[in-house]
Amino acid sequence: MGRLTPMLVFFRIGVIAYNLFIGFKRLSCPESWEKHTIATFRWKMVQVAGRIVRHAGETVLKLMIDLEKFGIL
């Protein structure tokens, strides 16, 4: 069972990550995004230019993206 255990842990982490993604998609995203895959989300949401700034004592993430383009607004 020595080599099998790390592979089982790796697989279980992947299953948990996938389930979290599905939950996020169902609870937080518009219906038009329901058919998107993980790769599509990565390209649309993660690979967006942004900057972390401090303003009025708060830390804010500013994204260089048109939210209407993605159907969020």
Question: What can you tell me about this protein's structure?
Answer:
This protein has 73 residues and is α+β, with helices and mostly antiparallel strands. Helices cover 47% and strands 16% of the residues. It has a two-stranded antiparallel sheet. β1 and β2 (58-63) form a beta hairpin. The radius of gyration is 17 Å and the shape is extended. It starts with a helix and ends in a 10-residue tail after the last strand. The mean pLDDT is 82.
- Shape summary: extended
Instruction: Please report the number of helical segments.
Output: 2
Helix and strand succession? Answer: HHEE
* Mean pLDDT value: 82
If you compute it from the alpha carbons, what radius of gyration comes out, rounded to the nearest whole angstrom? 17 Å
Biggest pleated sheet: 2 strands, antiparallel
Structural class: alpha+beta
What is the first-to-last residue Cα distance?
51 Å
Give the number of DSSP strands: 2
Instruction: Extract low-pLDDT stretches.
Output: none
Q: Level of helix content?
A: 40-55%
Order the strands across the largest sheet as they lie in space: 1-2
Roughly what fraction of the amino acids lie in strands?
15-25%
